[in-house]
Amino acid sequence: MPQLAPPGSAIQSLEDASSYLEGLINLERRPELGQARLGLRPIRRLLERLDGPERALSILHVAGSKGKGSTCLFAESILRAAGERVGTFTSPHLVCWTERFRVDGREVEPDRLAAAVDTLRPHVDALRAEDPAEAPTFFDATTAAALLLFAEARVDRAILEVGLGGRLDSTNAVNPAVTCITSIELEHTDKLGETLAEIAGEKAGILKAGVPCVTGRLPAEAEAAVERRAGELGVPLLRLGVDFEPVSAEAVCVLGAAQRDNAALARAMVAALGGYAPERLDEVSDRGLRTARLPGRVELLAREPWIVVDGAHTRASARVLAEALGELPAKRRHLLLSVSGGKDLAAILDALLQGATRVTVTCSELRRSLPAAELGARIRAAAPGLDVVVIDDPHQAVRAARAALAPDDLLCATGSIYLAGIARPLLHP
To answer: Model-level pTM greater than 0.85?
Structure first.
């Protein structure tokens, strides 16, 4: 494997790396270059040019419609409690690119990410020049960067979150030690299929012959598709609610039954790796789950008043969030909302507005988010009489919502990853 590029190379800073990666995103949006596609050939060619950094890694590979990022972070915390050195690759980030790449529970240093991007840049550019239609995508590049960083850090375990689907996702170019499918719902139907069975088939594409797979609570149609694929490959399936149970509310420092399920999936993955006596596994799981931190994922930032940040932006995730908020004994529930265009706004509002006493709406991302006035009008139509405040500037909206709280109130900032990224540092004590 090539060493990371030394100081003085073309990409010398996080800003340089960000510009290069964002440029790859822009190229993917140009259909004439053939970038709008899924497939493993480009990432495999890129990794081969990098001398296969993934081959040195023991990998936990996590797919799912919801909960996969949380499951990755729970697994990281358990493994670290066991004394293992862990690399974790998740997406998207809330504020900074470095959040996607973690070693030993910390974001990589900006100069290390810059060095990794500089190392892979000439290979990406060469493959693009050779065949633009099969050039590495943005996600190919970030996946390769993660594998380079983890190989260089000599981690004991690497945890990879699938970006989209599974079968054709960039992360599926690896040979994992254990896989996981957290959940399955109708999502990205233009790319993954129009039925639960079709989507499950795409996610089951991460299964590898003989490698154990941990699964969450799947709809019957989806579960049948996963079981069928597992049978073809001789994959041992470990199913939540059948082969292992959720963790208790006391065992994990997070809100909501869904997150407790994710914690159980993480524990089951670590168990499937082998090498831990039952008593030792219980010890490190208890310690790891109590100390796990899940940025922007039903994240409780403060008490008196209660402050929660979450990136919920679908019907299912909004329902999960609403259930979790119901566990908090707040007198009044305030929401801070921004929602991107193209989302199922009616379903999101139906879940989140129940029990709300005040809503502050804003526009967290000018190109993608609904205008604050439009979102406010939709909320007033859905819940006449609800106190709705419209503040266009998201930073001002966060500060105003926070200032209006009494000690026994609850504020939840949600509706989009963009808002979560803005609100989290402003609301953190």
So the answer is: yes
